[in-house]
Amino acid sequence: MTAPYLCPNCKTNRSRFNIMEQHPQAVKLDPATGAMVEEYSQSEAGPFHASYQGTQRRVQCGSCGTIEDEQTFLKFAESHPMNKS
Ligand SMILES: [Zn+2]
């Protein structure tokens, strides 16, 4: 399923974007050195490890450079449909 994007900042760009796929990795770091002690899948991280709550994609406007969650671009396009003239 695809839906149109519209930049909520410059309000004109509907076609040029940089899409960043998010690939969250749950890790345990050594608090002193920052070295990775353990890395696990989201389901293995355990009850004391908050799972990733962010969006799957971030989008950057190819015109003005604004970076927001994909939902922001989708919602703005939805509320500002293209003139069908
Ligand atoms: Zn923009």
Provide mean pLDDT, rounded: 92
How large is the count of helical segments? 1
Report the span from N to C terminus. 25 Å
Q: What is the total domain count?
A: 1
**Which hetero compounds are present in the coordinates?**
zinc ion
Tally of DSSP β-strands: 5
Give the strand content.
Answer: 25-35%
Characterize the biggest β-sheet: 3 strands, antiparallel
Given the helix and strand composition, which structural class is it? alpha+beta
Helical content stands at 10-25%
As residue ranges, the low-confidence spans are none
Shape assignment:
elongated
Order of helices and strands: EEEEEH
Radius of gyration: 18 Å
Numbering strands along the chain, what is their spatial order in the largest sheet? 1-4-5
Protein described:
- With 85 residues, the chain is α+β, with helices and mostly antiparallel strands.
- The chain has one domain.
- Helix content is 12%, strand content 26%.
- It has one helix at residues 70-79, and strands at residues 17-21, 26-29, 36-40, 57-61, 67-69.
- The strands form 2 sheets. Strands 1-4-5 form a 3-stranded antiparallel β-sheet.
- A hairpin with a 5-residue loop joins strand 4 (57-61) and strand 5 (67-69).
- The two termini are 25 Å apart.
- The mean pLDDT is 92.
- The protein binds zinc ion (ZN).
